[in-house]
Every structure is written in C-alpha cells, then in structure tokens.
Amino acid sequence: MAEDRKPARLSDRKANRRGAARLAAVQALYQMDIAGAGLNDVFAEFESHWLGNEVEGEKYLPAEAAFFRDVVSGVVRDQARLDPLIDEALSKGWPLKRIDAILRAVLRAGSYELEHRKDVPGRVVVSEYVDVAHAFVEKDETGMVNAVLDQIARQFRADEFVRG
User: Fold this and answer.
1) Which residues contact 71 (CB under 8 A, 6 or more apart)?
2) What is the pTM of this model?
3) H/E run at residue 25
4) What's the CA angle centered on 140, arms 94 and 109, to 5 degrees?
5) Rounded to whole angstroms, how far apart are CA atoms 22 and 109?
6) Of 24, 53, 87, 119, which residue is most buried, by most CB within 10 angstroms?
7) 59 vs 12: CA distance, rounded Å
8) Full pLDDT tens readout for the chain, 164 residues
9) Cα-based distances in Å from 55 to 2, 21, 94, 100
10) Alpha-carbon dihedral angle through residues 41, 63, 22, 127, given to the nearest 10 degrees
11) Which residues pair with 54 in a beta bridge?
12) Where does residue 95 rank: exposed (0-12), middle (13-18), buried (19+ CB within 10 A)?
C-alpha cells in the first residue's frame, strides 16, 4: 500500500548510491581485467555513460562517484598486495588466477574496501559484495565470496569479528 511507504532516509539513499558504486566498480575492474582498459578510460566511460544512466535497456542507479573512484583506483594501486591475501583465503588448488574474472573483481574490490574503508562496517562490506556477486554468478559462488571476504575481514578488522 502506498501509505505504508516511508520516504527514504538520507542514510538509505547513501547506502543505495554506495551499492551502485560497488556494482559499477566491479564492472569497471572486470572490464580492465578482460579488455586491458586503462584507469582513466574506465573512469571516463563509467562516469559519462554508466553511472545513473540507461545502458542496453537497463537503468543504473545514481552512484556515489567518489566512492566508485576510490574503490577502483585503490584496487589498481594495491592489487599486487591484495591478490596474495585473496589467494591465501581461497581453497588450496584454486589460486585467484583460476577464478572467473568477475569474481576476481568482486574479491579485489571487497578486500580493498575491508582494508581501507573503515567508515563502512566490515559485515556490511562482506554482505554488499556477496550481493554484487549474486548479480553475476550462482549461489555456490556467492558462498565462496562470502567465505573469502569473511576470512579477509577477520585479518583487517579482527576487532569487529570477535566471536562472542
């Protein structure tokens, strides 16, 4: 019912804009991985054509552009350090290079955010990237994303993940 609807709170709108930024960041990182696109080209393309626009019949939510840029540029900057952490969290015999490119992008973005974006609770980061993965892959693979990011979260944010 229409009267049951409440106006979106500012924090809800910010969360939705960040969720859209995470989705766009994963798509940009995927594009960079597959097509070898450069950082500036990806920023220009996503900010002018994807963020908050309609592409191929799909309406994209407005995204928090600064958050998008931070995640993408942070992953690019820290990838050589993040990839071994992700490799270690993956099951033996399944190194990151054997994981599908979209999942690599999800794991890299989530790992970066867990380490550097202390303004977002760790459990929220893990949950958000599981949701992003769900847009692209099957449930089994989203479970893997959850397990890997949870393990990495416990390294970067042990105080948030104390069992009790």
Assistant:
1) 21, 22, 25, 109, 112, 113, 117
2) 0.83
3) helix 10-35
4) 65
5) 8
6) 24
7) 19
8) 333 433 334 344 555 878 888 988 999 999 899 988 889 888 888 777 655 554 445 555 567 888 999 999 999 999 999 999 999 998 766 767 778 999 999 999 999 999 999 999 999 999 999 999 998 888 888 999 999 999 999 999 999 987 54
9) 29, 16, 34, 24
10) 180
11) 59
12) middle
In degrees and rounded to multiples of 5, residue 54 shows phi and psi of -100, 130
Q: List the structure tokens of 125.
A: 């980061």
Rounded Cα distance between 10 and 125, Å, is 19
Residue keyed to tokens 């949701």: 131
The CA-atom distances, in angstroms, between 105 and each of 21, 45, 88 are 13, 18, 16
Closest CA to 151 of 84, 83, 88, 79: 88
- Phi, psi of 59, rounded to the nearest 5 degrees: -90, 120
Q: Which DSSP string corresponds to 106-137?
A: HHHHHHHHHHH-TTS-HHHHHHHHHHHHHTTS
Q: Could you identify the residue written with the tokens 């080209």? A: 41
